[in-house]
C-alpha cells in the first residue's frame, strides 16, 4: 500500500517567535555581524526543515526560505539589480540585496506590491534592459544544505519563469517573447544542475495560471515548459498553481511536466469540476491542495477524505500527493502558545505546523485505513462542531439581520445634491475646506502610555487622562493652524482594526498569530470567529471630548466593514459577504451613536477595499457590489445634514471609480502621492460628482512640502474637478510622522489653500 504521499509547498519564514524578523532587524541595525546573521538564518532554516521532516512530510520544500522576499531572491539570482544600486556583477552582496528592498541614502527602494490576492507583498523586479545572468544556483544550494545537514531529499522551489516575468516591470510587454528567450537559458541551467545533482522533484510555482491569460500566453507557457523538459528530462517538475482555479485547464494539464499542483480550497469547486469533466492525464501526478494554506482553521478531515475519494475516481491514489492549497507562508507558525484563548476557539485552530499534521493524518487515513486514525479524525471533527455550535456562533438575531441585510436601509434619504445643499447650510464651510485623515503622530510617549495601561501600571483613568491631554494639545494645534474640519487624532488606537475588534463581540486576538506582510514586517490579524455584534459605543467619548473644545466641526473616525474584514482572519462557516454585513450592522450602531452625541461628520475608512478583490474577472464586480452595500448599510441611516466621509489609500483606484461613487459618501479623501495627475484624470473622466479630497502631499516621507507644490497640485485638480466639491487634505493619516514636521506641513497646507482661495 502506502500509495498516497504528502508534500508541503512552503513554510513560514518568520519563526515561531519571530526570530527571523528579529535577526533581520538586528542585522540592519548593525547589531549582528554578517557572519552571525548568516549563521542565525541557517539555524532557523534548518529548524524549519527538521520540523517538517519530523512530521513525516514526504516532499519537503527547499529554497522557499528567503532573506526578505522570494521574488527579490529570484531577481538577484538573475543579477537583476537596478543601476542605481551600483552593482558590479557576481553574487549580489547582502548589502545590495537589502538596499533594493529598503532603499539607501543614494537610491530609492524597488517598488513593492501585493502577491496576488494575499496580504503578502513582494518586491517588483526591474528588468530595464539588464541582461540576466545566473549569479548563483540558489535552489541547488538549498537542496545540498538540506541533504548534507539533515539527510533530507528536498524539493527545490522556484518562481516559474512566466509568473516571474508577468510580475516584473521595466520591459515592453510587446517584447515578452524576446524577454523569455533571455531567461530561458538560465532556468534551463538551474534545472540541468539540479538534475545532475540527482534532484527528483522540483516545484515550479506558476500562480499566474489562475488569472486570465490569452491564448498567446498559454502558447508561451507551453513553449517554456517544452524547452525545460527537453533540457532536463530526468527531473520531475511539479508545476504548481494556487489561489484559484486553473484557467485553460485542458491545456495546462497537458503541459510536458510530471505533475500539476492544483488548489482544491480556493476555486476548489471549479477545479474539481474540471478534473471530473475533462479528466487528468494518465502520465501525471496530481498535487492536491486540500488543506487551506490561507486560513487558520482546522481542516474538516472527513470532508477532505471525501474530496480525495472523488479525485481518486479520476487519478489513482499512487499518483496523488496531498499538500496545502498554497505555501504556508500566509499562516502563522503554531497554535501551541495560544493558551490564553477560549479553548473552544483554540481547539479549532490550525496554523502551519498543525496543518502539516493534518496532511500527515489525511495520508495515513488513506494509506492505513480510516480506522487506524479514527480517534484523531473524531477529535478534529468534534473541535469544529463544538465551535460551530458555540454560543459565539449562535447569535440568531445577528445572523438573521445579516441574512436579511438587503431589507435594511442602505440608501440615504435624499440624493447627494439635496444633501449637499443641506450640509452647506448646516456647516457653512469655506471654499476648499481643509481637513486631515484622522491620526496624528503616535509618539513614543503615546505608545508608552498604552503599554503602561495594558500592563496595569496605569489604571483606565490615568490612561484616559493622558489621551485627553493629547487630544487637547492637537485640538489647540489644529485651531492654531487654521484647519476647518478637525479630528481628535486617534491616540487611543494602536491599529485601526484591532481597536474596533477589541470592542465588538465576535473577535479574538491571538498571542502568536503573526504572518509576514512584507520583509521583516509582520501583522497579527484579529480572528473573527463568532457573530459580530455591537456592545457599546466605541469612539463617542473621545470625539465628544474633542468637539467640546472647539466650535469647528469635529469629524468622527471609524474603520469600515470591508477593511475590518480584509485585515482579519475570517471564520469559514459563513460567507465573507455575510460576515461583512454583520460588521456593517454593528458599525451602523456606532455611526448612529456618534450622530446622537452631536458628531455629525463621520469618516468611515475603507483603505483595504481593493485588497479583497478576487483574482477572477467575473468575481470582481459581485465582490465590489456587496462591499459597497456593506459600507452603505453602515452609513445610510443618518440625517441629510450629517456628512459621511470615507478615505482610501494603498491602491489603484482608476478601475473602481464607479464603485467608489456608489459608496455615496458625501466626501472621499484619497491617497494620491504616487500618481496625482492620472488620478485626477480618471475622476474627471468618470464625472465623479461628490466631495473629493485628493491628497495634496505625501505623508510617507518626513519631508515638509513647499507651499507652491501644493498650490500647483490644487490648481491642477481644480482645472478638471468641480471646485465646489474639492477638499484639501494630506494623503493619509499622520500617525507615523513626527510632531514638528506634521505641524509644519499642515501650516503650509492651510497656507496653500488660502492662496488658492484668494486667487479664485
Ligand atoms: N483614519 C486613519 C488614520 O488616519 C486612516 C488610516 C489609513 O488610511 N490607513 O490613521
Ligand atoms: Zn490612508
UniProtKB/TrEMBL annotation:
Residues given in the record as L-methionine binding sites: 437-439, 490, 605
Please indicate which superkingdom the organism of origin belongs to.
Bacteria
Report domain Cobalamin-independent methionine synthase MetE C-terminal/archaeal positions.
Answer: 432-754
Q: Which CDD domains match?
A: CIMS_C_terminal_like (cd03311), CIMS_N_terminal_like (cd03312)
Q: Which SUPFAM superfamilies match?
A: UROD/MetE-like
Q: Which residues are listed for Zn(2+) 1 binding in this entry? A: 647, 649, 671, 732
- Which Pfam family would be a valid example here? Meth_synt_2
InterPro entries from the UniProt entry: Cbl-indep_Met_Synth_N (IPR013215), Cobalamin-indep_Met_synthase (IPR006276), Met_Synth_C/arc (IPR002629), UROD/MetE-like_sf (IPR038071)
Which GO molecular function, any one, fits this protein according to its record? zinc ion binding
UniProt: 5-methyltetrahydropteroyltri-L-glutamate binding residues: 18-21, 114, 119, 521-522, 567, 611
Annotated residues that bind Zn(2+) are located at: 647, 649, 671, 732
- What are the residue boundaries of the Cobalamin-independent methionine synthase MetE N-terminal domain, all occurrences included? 6-314
This entry's Enzyme Commission designation comes to 2.1.1.14
Region feature (Disordered): 395-417
| Ligand binding (L-homocysteine) | 437-439, 490, 605
Q: Which GO terms describe its biological process?
A: methionine biosynthetic process; methylation
Annotated active site residues, numbered on this chain, are 700 (proton donor)
* Required cofactor names: Zn(2+)
Q: In which pathway does it act?
A: Amino-acid biosynthesis; L-methionine biosynthesis via de novo pathway; L-methionine from L-homocysteine (MetE route): step 1/1
Query: Catalysed reaction per UniProt?
Result: 5-methyltetrahydropteroyltri-L-glutamate + L-homocysteine = tetrahydropteroyltri-L-glutamate + L-methionine
Q: How is the cofactor bound?
A: Binds 1 zinc ion per subunit.
Cite the binding residues for Zn(2+) 2: 662
Task: Please state which protein family the record places this protein in.
Answer: Belongs to the vitamin-B12 independent methionine synthase family.
Q: What is this protein called?
A: 5-methyltetrahydropteroyltriglutamate--homocysteine methyltransferase
Q: Which organism is it from?
A: Paenibacillus pini JCM 16418
